[in-house]
């Protein structure tokens, strides 16, 4: 599977190149210790070196590669990286869920229920790409609802890596552990119930358990170093 073209609308060529290389690294098709050549990538993607350079810079910021005079050295995604990624997700989403829980969230919960229904439909049709994107959309909808500019900037700094990890993990779930898909749908329904409860301690408990389970599943799916 290449990076879904439907997810690349309105992105620059550099961002599109970064998305494809990121997917290959996270999936393990490009191994840690490999060196990426700007010239070879430019030839593969049919472009000049400038967009390739932009894409590599983005991957460097995410910590997937290291840029030096010799080129782009692939670091990959380690178990520590996955833990840190989900630590950040917990901090962001626990805070935003607590915020929106205190407001009138009827419209939000209706939207989230619709997303969960669509996830169930994607499961029924075995649509890996749609399911992964809906998973991200569910969480991003809550973050956006909090209307916190700095937190949304922080979220955007990890969004591409989170989406790619979700895609690979979802691909593995559908292929090898299909029974987990319904469990994941149920976990999202539980998050909605926690939001509706407006109970801060319960919300933190549910979201902590959600991300701990998800982190373990992602680590299993990605088989990080």
Folded structure, characterized:
The protein is mainly alpha-helical and 225 residues long. It folds into two domains: 5-74, Arc Repressor Mutant, subunit A; 79-222, Up-down Bundle (Four Helix Bundle (Hemerythrin (Met), subunit A)). It is built from nine helices and three strands; from the N terminus they run H-E-H-H-E-E-H-H-H-H-H-H. It has helices at residues 13-27, 38-45, 49-61, 79-101, 106-124, 128-145, 149-176, 179-197, 200-222, and strands spanning 35-36, 65-68, 71-74. A three-stranded antiparallel sheet has the order 1-3-2. A hairpin with a 2-residue loop joins strand 2 (65-68) and strand 3 (71-74). The protein is globular, with a radius of gyration of 18 Å. The two termini are 22 Å apart.
Task: Note the gap between the termini.
Answer: 22 Å
Q: What's the structural domain tally? A: 2
- Characterize the largest beta sheet: strand count, sense, and whether it forms a barrel: 3 strands, antiparallel
Helix and strand composition category: mainly alpha
CATH class of the largest domain: Mainly Alpha
